[in-house]
Amino acid sequence: MMRRFRPYIFVLLVLILIGSWPRMFSTAARTINAWWSPGNGSILRATVQYENPSGWLSIVNTSGDVATKNNAFFDPIGSNGRACVTCHQPADGMSISAESVRQRWGITSGSDPLFAAVDGKNCPDLPDAYPQSHSLLLDRGLIRVALPWPPKGADGTSVKPEFTIEVVRDPTGCNTNSVYGLNSPSPTVSVYRRPRPAANLKYIIADSFGVGRFIAKNGQPAERDPETGKLVQMNMMADARELTLKTQARSAASGHLQLKDGLTDAQLEQIIGFETQVYAAQSYHSEGGELAESDGPPALGPAALARGRTGVLGNNTTNFWESKIFDNKF
Ligand code: HEC
Q: Measured from the CB, is residue 144 less than 6 Å from ligand 1?
């Protein structure tokens, strides 16, 4: 008996194939679950895609392929085996996800340098090798940020606070700790923060439109770049305590990497050179499809971020108003 040709099955197969076309034939290098170990020395391709729960995330390096060997962003230049890339992973959009943290714990039984006591534990003196000691990092991807109290200004001198701090609740015990707490010999406030993406940084450090004596968002007076004396946008870090990529990289190296002697000029140049050319964004959504098509919305995908102009609040408002005014669209 002859098998009947079933046109609807054929149509269904064609539709499935068309749907998976962009995923199958895109030219970018594609990597699944790619943890970047410090000092692995391989090449970070100009365009890389990483699978994530909602599709694909893409990294674009506008300088082309990046040779990471002997590059201070990728090498464990400090004393604890970490590199900047430990917490700023390409596969996690140059941040790090709690999921990746848990995978590292599973694979290394907690011995990955990521879990260093200095800021990878809820408090440095908690017992080693216990997941409970690292619960904020494992459960929420949070790193301990130790802030001196009273705070220090950009020139390193103490600022006279206009308020006092009392500890009302201290679930981790670090703020009441006799060595690391608020009333210790070197008074410190521990806060716990997600690593912000070390990518798309031209929007964070833009010093053109909207950078004035006062910060538009909160009305506070703006600080100046300690080196050039220029006003800065103060968009970096959760609390704007770092004014430039240079001061940020120096304190990240001494704090997170426990580098004793400070970064050399060449290392600083490498780090900032890398950070200011790398862009990260979702480029494919499992239900929405390709997000960065050539005729798609101009704001989506990392290449659009690399092309975009900087301005107030990233680039949105400035570009919107300017395009309306100059293109006479009102
Ligand atoms: C142990 C994890 C860890 C390591 C290692 C690390 N960082 Fe970070 N990074 C963070 C955290 C946490 C923040 C956010 C801190 C905050 O907001 O107070 C951050 C923020 C940043 C930012 C600010 C981005 C923004 O938009 O504000 C940059 C840039 C950065 N890191 C670069 C670096 C560099 C360069 C190195 C290496 C010298 C490095 N990081 C090493 C955890 C880390």
A: no
Q: Is 87 in the pocket of ligand 1 (CB under 6 A)?
A: yes
Residue 144 neighbours by CB under 8 Å, 6+ apart: 118, 119, 120, 121, 122, 123, 136, 174, 190, 191, 192
Closest to 77 measured CA to CA, from 43, 44, 113: 113
Q: What pLDDT is stored for residue 148 in this prediction?
A: 96
Measured by CA distance, the residue closest to atom 29 of ligand 1 is 198
**So what's the pLDDT on residue 125?**
96
Task: Give me the pLDDT at residue 207, please.
Answer: 79
What whole-number distance in Å separates Cα of residue 232 and Cα of residue 211? 7
Low-confidence stretches of the chain (pLDDT beneath 70)? 1-33, 209-210, 312-330
Question: DSSP state, 197?
Answer: P
Structure tokens at 96: 């790090």
d(CA 84, CA 252): 8
Contacts of residue 291, defined as CB under 8 A and 6 or more positions apart, other chains included, come to 55, 281, 282, 283, 284, 285, 300, 301
Q: What is the pLDDT of residue 92?
A: 97
Structure tokens of 35?
């943890």
Residue located nearest, by CA, to atom 2 of ligand 1: 87
Other CB atoms within a 10 A radius of the CB of residue 193 amount to 15
The backbone region for 33, taken as left when phi is positive above 0, alpha when psi lies in -120 to 50, beta otherwise, is left
Q: Residue 189: what are its φ and ψ, rounded to 5°? A: -105, 120
Any ligand 1 atom below 6 A from CB of 259:
no
Q: Is 267 in the pocket of ligand 1 (CB under 6 A)?
A: no
- The answer to whether the CB of 314 is under 6 A from ligand 1 is no
* Residue of 37, 88, 140, 193 to test ligand 1 pocket, by largest number of atoms within 8 Å of CB: 88
Cβ–ligand 1 distance for 270 under 6 Å, the answer: no
pLDDT at 267: 98
